[in-house]
């Protein structure tokens, strides 16, 4: 193709707000880099160039100047303008992705680690799990608190403490001591970008590749992902009516360096770890110098009595790291969580946090501190707990009326979801797929089972049904659809 034809074909859009010389610069740069304008090619004189594209000479001169400054063009008065010979000749693109530079082994582990985690990709519908009631949140109050902070910027709007906004950590310390019995100082608290970041940081700095880690099975897949990404060997430990079977873990994998547990409200079965199991777990961790990660993801929502005391409150050996999230209490988009570390570990976690993202966004932390200090946090929890309890009752009544012969409900005294076991022979995955086709979400309990777990970790077939974010009439509709599915209608 002649150079004049190449120039005439350069794409310029006169209706765009971007100046024509910037468009011309970008088009010529692309043509040079992909080899359409080869190194050493002489460009037409500027006046001829203008005629080919119907642009002003100044447009061409400005584009030439940018290209020359970046090394794409060479030229001198009286000699002409050329595509620089220093621009490398482009090689043919790889025919298949397999020829591209591969990820490192660690990179492949990180990418693969969360592939089994289900993400919400559609509009809210019954019975979505892991979702709080967002329309209950006082966004008008939150907007006012954030706006007030934006109106009064100070030195804290620069780079701040990786551990988090100190007034927020002080307020969380008081709250956790009062509500969960957590024994800590503000210096032990590290603010994170959600509990998922906390789990990733802990997996990264506490485990070496090949180290074993206990993981509840069935359990939260979002926790097993970071463990696998760190190169740890995840060892599934069964869960029964008393929580994690510590004796099984001790008998089959006593050398584990870490145990991940959800003792207050096990995910997904909803059971609480018994005192005997808690003490046994802490004894094993102390004797073996292992770590225990306590994920307390939704303990605020207990509907029968006060929230249970944390596992951390029983720890006397400094082996429990308490992980909390505000996604379930406020709203997931906030992306705020926290860790309460043993004093000896706190500084290391702060440094690890600094490596990950320097510090979590400061204005949401400030707004949350004000939200707690002014009493909005406590009021919101009380109101949301009442709302959740009402919707839980709607679900329980509907299941009892419509599906008592089909489903047996698990513990229902806390949380945002209800575990329901099939009374008859049903295939979880088939029921779940049919539910999607009929407009409802049904999460199989098998989704939470470790694929490498043996028969000891087998869980009865069933579903996890979320209710907190679902309106009562939609809960009723969802139960009726589920009944039709289970009865083959």
Give an overview of the whole structure.
It is a single chain. This protein has three domains: 3-83, Orthogonal Bundle (Arc Repressor Mutant, subunit A), CATH 1.10.10.10; 109-119 and 155-378, Type I PLP-dependent aspartate aminotransferase-like (Major domain) (Aspartate Aminotransferase, domain 2, 3-Layer(aba) Sandwich), CATH 3.40.640.10; 383-486, Aspartate Aminotransferase, domain 1 (Alpha-Beta Complex), CATH 3.90.1150. Helix 7 packs across helix 13 (362-373). The protein contains 16 helices and 15 strands. The model is unreliable at 93-97 (pLDDT under 50). A hairpin with a 7-residue loop joins strand 12 (407-409) and strand 13 (417-422). An eight-stranded mixed sheet has the order 4-11-10-9-8-5-6-7, sandwiched between helices. A four-stranded antiparallel sheet has the order 12-13-15-14, with helices on one face. It has helices at residues 3-8, 20-33, 46-53, 57-69, 105-113, 139-151, 166-180, 195-206, 221-229, 246-252, 275-288, 343-357, 362-373, 376-403, 428-437, 472-486, and strands at 42-43, 73-76, 80-83, 189-192, 212-217, 233-240, 243-244, 258-261, 291-295, 320-325, 337-340, 407-409, 417-422, 443-444, 462-466. With 489 residues, the protein is α/β, with parallel strands linked by helices.
Write a compact overview of the structure shown:
This protein is an alpha/beta fold. Helices cover 41% and strands 13% of the residues. It starts with a helix and ends with a helix.
